[in-house]
Amino acid sequence: MGDYLGIVVMAVLALSFVGVSLGVSALLAPKRPTPEKLDAYECGIVSDQESVERFPVQFYLVAMIFIAFDVEIIFLYPWAVRMRALELFGFFEMALFVVVLLIAYAYILREGVLDWAPKRTLDRETLMQGFRVEADRAKAALSEQDRGRKSEAA
Amino acid sequence: MDTVYPLTLSALLFGIGVYGILARKNAVMILASVELMLNACNINFVAFGAAWNEISGQVFALFVIAVAAAEVGIGLAIVLLIYRNHVNVNVDEIDSMKW
Amino acid sequence: MNIHAAADIPTSPADYSAIAPELAMLGTGLVLLLMIALKRFKNDSWYAAIAAFGTLFSAGWAIALWNAVESGEVGDDHVRFAFSGMVVADGFGAFLSVLICLAVLLGILLSDVYLRHENAGKAEYYILLLFSAAGMQFMVISNNLVMMFISLELLSVCLYILSAWHRDRSDSQEAGLKYLLLGAFSSAFLLYGIAFLYGATGTTNLVGFEQYFAENVLFSSGMVLLGMVLVVVGLCFKVAAVPFHMWAPDVYQGAPMPVVAFMAAGAKVAGFAGLWRVLEVGLSAYELDWQPLLWAIAAITMLVGSVLAIVQTDVKRMMAYSSIAHAGFILTGLVAANEEGVRGALFYLVAYTIMVMGAFAVISLVARRGEQDTSLEDYRGLSRREPLLAGILAFLLFAMAGIPGTSGFVAKFAVFGGLAGAERWVLIVVGTLASVLSAFFYLRLVVYMFMEGLPLEAKTPTLSRLPVPGVSAVVLAVTVFFTLQLGVLPEGLLDIAGRATLFAG
């Protein structure tokens, strides 16, 4: 243990040096902050607007829904503790409570809040539409060729 | 236990919350201050419940927690909506109508 | 605290009939939510129709409850407590429940037109409207401060979202944010007050308060008074009473118009009912303490609302200050704290709900798309372009000003009658002064519509006649009819309101 004493002393000295020098400069240095000085350094050019960020709203929605359901759960705890005393009445009241939450959950599912990834599989309707477009294009090309041949023949 | 201590704590928290609402410009910080105030009330409820040897104080606290979560959820949603239109949520700068 | 000692929790038989109107309201909202989850209709008017149907159903239950209370079926003294004293079935609650249903119904009709016009329609709008109404209904029947707080939050949270509903107008979102921040702030005060009342008495039940104060002599009533003041502050915020009115003008100006109309009527009803229940039932022992407080609030609310409305140039903002002034008049009914006063306040609430719905129906028709045309200038010479609409609006404004022959006059007369009974002469003088002041700005708008010529730029004559959808026409007809009917033959409603004052044994 004693072998490491030097390292400990060294570490303490190093930390206290950092602390003292930062502390002294914070105390003694003149502070004249301007908005430009406080800005993040970007190649020395003063930035005149906020950078445009992508704002993934999905995180927020899921977090909010998590909080809502998470908090609703606290009402289950008192019931769980006194479940036997509350008997069937308590059970049905709690079932009603959960059903109401489930309706909200069904709505959330329907609104697609929990669909994280973009849809990979094409549904039938989109697929058929794609086919139709392709078919129309091919037909148009064919009739164009036809017309060309006819004019040639003429 | 003496009820004075939790009451003092909650009064301090409530005061900090009021100060935060009055002094802060950022809507999110104001919401956080509201949360502080509501939790100060919760401390009061639990403390009084203990003092009266009564359960309803704690029950009330549970309801307040749920209500506070709902309120903040809605609040953040509206703040988000405004953030996307204004790119800032300083209540001083959201003043297309007289404040 | 020994939690485990409570071995047999009293599970009182659940008395669902006491909360049937509220359950109908909530149930309709849930059905709509489920419908969206399963399949969406193309036409949003379907949702409006279902919501309106549910509201009628709720009103039917409320009327049935009123009849049961009247016939004395519900227990001693026409009052029955349900759900361990959480709610109370009495005439007061049933009366206001029906009134809230009326506000929702007219609100739905206005919303249907507005949302189709503004292209902002979605079924969720009606769900929020119904949940908010359920919150209001729960508030008017709550007999426990826990219940009152939760219902207040339910109604407020839904109104916050509805205020910010219009996605394309940043004013609407701004209104929502302001309403939310200040509303949450005031809720916290209310809650802190409730905590102190609970600490002082050991219960949150309003009847429990009454009993506690009757049985115990308090060593010091500091905690009760602190709690009382905080609760009054929190509830006065909801009814937009001065000095807690700062949110109202901005929210009224920014929020979608049907929401404003619904909020002006419904939130006032709920806030008023909450105040009356807390003060008259819970804190009746402290009447000498809360009466001066309410006196002062009512007086400055009437005056400030009337005076500040005069300097407004936007009609929606003017309506906001007018609603503040009306809140003051309604509060005077509580200051009187006698049967005539509260009867007058109840009548006033009905009359105001009808007037404000009609007025906003006209304003939103005149505003056309985008809620642009709401400044006073836009009303210049309206009678030339739209004689009928201008006439209806003028009539409703006369009613709000309290011209004899309209419901507004009877309402003001009724609350002042209560004040006279309580010998509050100074407040009567203040109220009369405020009515005269408020008549000024209502008449100014009428003058703008009828006396002034068209603006010189002549942008208006080129506009086509405003289309009046059938639904709006129904709202206008109903509101004008009842405003006139209650003005000429008010006895029926006054009698019913008199039986709903909480005093009736």
Structural class of chain A: mainly alpha
Number of strands of chain C: 2
Largest sheet of chain A: none
Give the DSSP E fraction of chain C (strand runs of 2 or more residues): under 5%
Q: What would you call the quaternary organization?
A: heterotrimer
Order of helices and strands of chain C: HHEEHHHHHHHHHHHHHHHHH
Number of strands of chain A: 0
What's the helical proportion of residues of chain C? over 70%
What does the main sheet of chain C amount to? 2 strands, antiparallel
Strand order of the largest sheet of chain C: 1-2
Which chain pair has the greatest contact?
Answer: B-C, 49 and 40 residues
The parts of chain A where pLDDT drops under 50 for at least 5 residues are: none
Give the CA-based shape of chain A. Answer: flat
Concise summary:
Chain A is mainly α. Chain A has helices at about 5-30, 35-40, 55-70, 75-80, 85-110, 125-154.
Reconstruct the topology from this structure.
The complex is a heterotrimer of chains A (154), B (99) and C (505).
Chain A: H1 5-28, H2 35-38, H3 57-72, H4 76-81, H5 83-111, H6 124-153
Chain B: H1 4-23, H2 27-52, H3 56-86
Chain C: H1 20-38, H2 45-70, E1 80-82, E2 87-89, H3 91-118, H4 123-141, H5 145-163, H6 170-201, H7 206-215, H8 222-238, H9 247-254, H10 257-282, H11 287-310, H12 315-336, H13 339-367, H14 382-385, H15 387-401, H16 407-421, H17 425-450, H18 470-488, H19 491-498
Antiparallel strand pairs in C: 1-2
Helix pairs in contact in C: 1-2, 1-4, 2-3, 2-4, 3-4, 3-10, 3-13, 3-18, 4-5, 4-10, 5-6, 5-10, 6-8, 6-9, 7-10, 8-10, 9-12, 10-12, 10-13, 11-12, 11-17, 12-13, 12-16, 12-17, 13-15, 13-16, 13-18, 13-19, 15-17, 16-18
